Amino acid sequence: MKLTRRHWVAASVFLAAVRPRAASAIVIPVYDPGRFIEMVALLGQVAQLTETLRNGLTQLENSARALGRGNLLDAILIGHRDITSDLRSISYRMETVSSQFRRVFPNDQAVQNTPASDIAELRSGWNQEIHHSALAASRAQTALASIERNSTSANAILDASKTTTQNDEGSALAKLQAVVQMLGVINSDLTTLATTIATTERVNTSLAATEAAEHDVASDQARRMMRGYSASPRRIERVDSRLLR
Q: Residue ranges of the domains in the chain?
């Protein structure tokens, strides 16, 4: 088969796509200082939220004990203990990440001077701590949901009950409603904490150096050029010569 100009152009495009990149085109890591600033802010938010939750759990315990002895109080105290343990774990792990982060990256210049390989290694260790914190937050939410179901059910039963005097019923309802209200506040804070930890994990994952934009464009161009071409030439039989003019 006679090779035409169109065949030579196709071959040139293919060779350009598969030709190894020159040594001068080695990708230099690019750092985004904004990610590090965001990481610092997120770690601060996690610390603040865990402190707020600890205070809320103290108020919940006091409100629950005002209910007097009973199965509901026992259930609340058990859940309270589990959530407190999870918060303690979150606080310890995230404070470890925060202190190490501040020590390694005291300023933007330190970020620029840290080798990409070192950042990747540090990020890997931090990811483990943050991931375990996310799991602890999820456990705390599960424990709180159980307390909320029991408290809401008890509140509905007491509200519908007419076996007590009006004063006793009002007093008991007020105490239980205070518990339910406090649970709602804690639930909101826990949800925010879980979301913040998840965001921290994503930002931490992106801390490693990103490739230069030029490399991304070049790679995309190569992929587009390669599209429609196979690694080995295919034999084209019975090609109408008019198509090659």
A: 32-244
